[in-house]
Amino acid sequence: MTAWTRKHCVCTEVRNLDYDEAAAALKIKRRWLEDNISRLPHQKFGGNPAVFCMCDLRVIQAMQAVLPADALAVIEPVEPAKQTPTTPPVRALAAIKPAKGRGRAVAQV
């Protein structure tokens, strides 16, 4: 059995939220949490329903964040592309013709 740690959790006072409280805090429907629970950080104690701490909710928000390219460029500026040596274009196999060989030498008698 692997020992799991909750490295993302920095709560000094853990307040476990049930599905309804977590959904209200995230301003989403409870059903979405229930349908996606296997992909979301949560705590599970025996046969009880899953519970969430505020750190779990922060991770869930980060997982669902959508950043358009313009916003991402402001957050993480893009470095100019490095110049790579250009290679000649590759010709299609159908365009390749056999080389013209040397003509047959006529045997002189």
Short description:
Helices cover 28% and strands 0% of the residues.
Explain this structure:
Helix content is 28%, strand content 0%. The protein has helices at 19-26, 30-35, 54-63, 69-75. It is elongated, with a radius of gyration of 31 Å. It has a domain at 19-75.
Radius of gyration: 31 Å
Number of helices: 4
- Which class best fits the helix and strand makeup? mainly alpha
Give me the count of strands: 0
User: Residue ranges: pLDDT <50 for 5 or more in a row?
Assistant: none
Residue-averaged pLDDT: 81
Spatial separation of the terminal alpha carbons: 92 Å
SSE blueprint and pairings:
Blueprint: H1 19-26, H2 30-35, H3 54-63, H4 69-75
Protein traits:
0% strand, mainly alpha, 4 helices
